[in-house]
Amino acid sequence: MAETDYDVIVMGGGPSGIAAAVAAAREGASTLLIERYGFLGGAGTAMMVNPWMSYWAGGSDQVQLIFGVLQELIDRMTEMGAYGHPKQITAFDPEALKVVAERLCKEAGVTLLYHSFLGAAQMDDSGHYIKSVKVANKSGLVDFSAKMFVDAMGDADLAALAGAKVNKGRSVDGLSQPMTLNFRVANVDVDRMPDRKEITRRYLEAKKRGEIRCPREDVLWFYANQPGVIHFNTTRVILKDATNPWELTEAEIEGRRQVQEFVRF
Fold it and tell me: Which domains does the chain have, with CATH numbers?
């Protein structure tokens, strides 16, 4: 029977969860990382949020600020030829990130559990500490206990379920940043692409003609790692709550609708 008690349980396998789990395991703690999808990487792989934000400061005299596990992931993707682009230095291959993140965790001694969704947090008698978490997966409802829990789920789900005070959205109306469905276009002759301003100008004209219904005011795109592939982070789904499963479903549908309009455009 699989182990259900650990020193540390990390909920969420995005970049922060990967770093937390690897660090804990390297310090000798028995560590379990629980992830809802079948792979690591968080938004960078599941939602293809690309490229990574810069991790340095300064102008011409740039100084790198973040190293650690992030740098290890970068180095390993670089070895695979899956990190960076001449015009987009932090672009990465999502499939490569899945592989290197997994290897890093396994080498550190992290136990991975995929396809498991957090359902509840059980508190100790004092009500101040998490005693165990209940997750749903193909085995049904399973309890896992630990001395320490790390909430790396992005939406602070574990903290909220444990009764912690959490803030969501802006104070004036509770709304959060709009959601986006990323997409990519392949076989692009990048040398013939109009510049960003010209693409946006044509996009705004298409909106006036009613060919595109997207509230975004410009077209946001980046170079991907693969030759001739352009990554678009430009759909915009507004007035939806990503912690409400019904509204999140509506957002998925609306995002795909917008993608098809953009592809035709």
Answer: 5-161 (3.50.50.60), 183-264 (no CATH)
